[in-house]
Amino acid sequence: MKEEMNEKDTRLIETLVDAMKKLEGELSGFRGEMKEFKDSIKERVGELEVTTRMCQVNPKSCANARRLEEHLRNHGGTYGRVFTALGFVTACTGILISVIALIGKRG
Length: 107
Known about the structure:
With 107 residues, this protein is mainly alpha-helical. The chain has 3 helices and no strands. The protein starts with 6 loop residues before the first helix and ends with a helix.
């Protein structure tokens, strides 16, 4: 049984074809935007790689390395000396308490 297309079916097919053409145009624009986005991301990643490489080769070119060096220079090792002395006093106090406790158990 052969079915003929009526006018309603023809309009429906025409509407679908028009919608597909519009969608194709939108997808083409979307592809272009995605390509631009991809290119900009590649460029940014390339810049980051160059900056990272420069930091590894010459730490003075890196802002974080300069700040760390300045921080260490400003403290001049005073904190290290203070904590070393504090650790020494704590250790001596612990030894002294142990010796006194040992003498107290014997006596």
